Each structure stands twice: as C-alpha cells, then as structure tokens.
Model the fold of this input.
Amino acid sequence: MARQDRQTHWQGVYTTKSDTEVSWYEEAPDLSLTLLHEAGLMPGMSVIDIGGGVSRLVDALVDAGQAHVGVLDLSSAALGAAKSRLADTAHVQWVVSDVTVWTPDREYDLWHDRAAFHFLTTAVDQQAYVRVLARALKVGGKAVIGTFAMDGPEKCSGLPVARYDSESLQAVLGEQFRLATTRRHEHTTPWGTVQKFQFSIFEKVGGQAPGHQL
Done:
C-alpha cells in the first residue's frame, strides 16, 4: 500500500470508529508498560510510541512523570483524540507522519511499537522503517516491537499484515539490533476474538541497518 493510501485508510478508521470499536483497543496498556519497564524505563528518559493512535499509553507515561513522550501516527484525528484526553501535554510531542519517511529531531531512549510494523508488507517499507528506527534510537537504547505472531491473523482492519517470530523479526532489523527478550501474548478484541501476538525487545548495538544503500 502506498504511503498516501495508508494515511487515507487510517484517517478514515479514526474518523468513523470510536476507540472501542477497533480490534486493537485495550482499556489499559499494561503489557506495554511492563515491557518498557523491562527495557529500563526511567522518568528521565525519552520515549516514542510508533502508531500510537488513541492508545492510553501516552496517558500512563504522562501520569508517571515521563520527561519526554513522542506519539507518532498517520492519523491526525487519532492524535487529536488522544491529546484531548490529557490535561497536561507540555512533555508530549505529537507527530503526524508515516514512520517510513519520518525524520526524527532527537534521539530516543526507548521506541515502542504495538502493532504498527506488521502493516508494512514490502521489503522497501520494512527497510525504511529500520533506517528510521536506527536514526531515532540511541546506541544502547531499546525498541519494544509487537507484531502478530506466525499463527496470528493474516489481516487487520481489512489490510494484509506480515507475521513474525523473534527470529524473523531479528532478520529484518539486522545486526544493528540485538534481541534481548521475547514473549507471546494473546490479545482479546472488544468482541471476544483472540489474536496471537509476539512482543520482542531489541537493543541498538551499532552496525548497519539492512538496505542502507536504498
């Protein structure tokens, strides 16, 4: 799917459905917070949430006194809805962008992506994502990436997805990132369907990202 088509799709989703009417809705981002803490989350760190949409993760991080939180999404409607919930947005950066073409203006300690990367189904888009991740994350920083597992859904929101285990995700990220830990997770949608995910934490260790010459 072309970048403009992706943006049109997700803007449409977030202008026609409430947050509880999408399959990825969760009342509280408990697993994301657990994994971020496993990755070393501390109040003085900067965190970027990729494909954050209307997730409650930003609320939890702001409430915890996080020094800097970035939320990136293709949909301005989604970010507007998330922003409207917060009384204090002084430490939040809202970024309306496709992650594959985003130019970070700072380096982050932690990168969080719950179910955005798996919508990138071509090698070109996947490599573009990895290049942005490499630019955005500090050496020694951690990336928490959640995707559908190998036995997870083949589509979401009407779109095809790429499914992963930790080994295949490591192969896409390349030698610049080292797998620290991984776990499986079963997410229950608002209508009771179980979706199988895998979440992995990677540390940026240096080297070159795949496809750097493109």
